Amino acid sequence: MTLAGHGESPVVARRRVRLALRRARDAVGLSQGSVANHMGWSVSKVQRIEAGDNAVSGTDLRALLDLYGVTDREEIDQLAEEARISRRQRWWTKPEIRDHLTPGLMQLLQFEAEAVAIRSYQPVLVPGPFQTPAYAEFVLGWYDIGLTKDDLRVRHDVRMQRREQFLGSGDNPRYFLILDESVLKREIGGLEVMAQQLEQLAELAQRPEVRIRIVPLKEGAVLGLVGQFTVLDLSEGDVDDAVLYRESYTRDFIEHDPKEVAFHRELFEVFWRQSLDEEKTIRAVIAEAASLRARIDRAT
Question: From residue 95, how far is each of 111, 147, 162, 282 by CA, in Å?
């Protein structure tokens, strides 16, 4: 099984088209209702295109660009190519894999591949790309409601593929990770599994593209009420070109609303400032791993 794709992913291409169309409509001061009247469409069709729920056809794209007065040939051709990619039904995993993943997770995988920076706040667990195989297996073992054995098997395989790509690639996004200190204290899978997880986490924290900070327990009780979230930047220098990923038990989703993305980005920066710095974090992770190793030694 491989997650490696060929070229740009459909979900990213669709997002670029819908954002370009929305900006073009705003530039000429038209409402969605006015566009619907001009095109002879329902308002819901315009809304679905701009929300990314529907891929736009080449004919409809050119008609919209003409209505918005977009005449730059290079821009039109680029958007036409993006629209073509966005309509691809064959995604970069096989159907037998795709059938066991949530729509939110499928989108996350594609956005991760395009991201230039990722900011993730995790109050409960080490995030998927940083999990060891044993830690991931134990975590997924909790999901015994609503998921089949095949669902769990495929999700574990996908999680490990994400991990291998992240560990092995030389072109990774910058990854800023905030963990609640309680994440280090939970003995997920037992002493040996948790010791291995913390040892790997300490190694990852020393990679140049990875920066990890810990929220001390005294701060984390209130911050943890926000819940897990991840902000993915899809281009350099454009704060609006980003998406938000939220997850809870078996439910997850991608949020495109710029206000929601900006709000969580700001939250992340607040949490970052209230966390231990990277050097202290590495020492804390190493110390916790050493403590677990000492307990293992005493038990043998």
Answer: 19, 17, 18, 40
C-alpha 135/C-alpha 137 separation (Å) is: 5
H helices of the chain, where? 10-28, 32-39, 43-51, 58-67, 73-86, 95-98, 103-114, 133-140, 149-168, 182-185, 191-204, 217-223, 258-273, 278-299
Question: Could you tell me where the DSSP H helices lie in 120-257?
Answer: 133-140, 149-168, 182-185, 191-204, 217-223
How far, in Å, CA of 179 to CA of 162, rounded? 19
Pick the CATH number of 95-299 from 3.30.70, 3.30.870, 1.10.1740, 1.10.150: 3.30.870
Full-model pTM: 0.76
Annotation: CATH topology of 10-86: 434 Repressor (Amino-terminal Domain) (1.10.260)
Confidence of residue 29 (pLDDT cuts 50, 70, 90): very high
Q: pLDDT tens digit string along 150-202?
A: 888 888 888 888 888 777 666 778 999 999 999 999 999 999 999 999 999 99
Domains 10-86 and 95-299 share a fold: no
Residue pair 156/137 in contact by the 8 Å Cβ criterion: yes
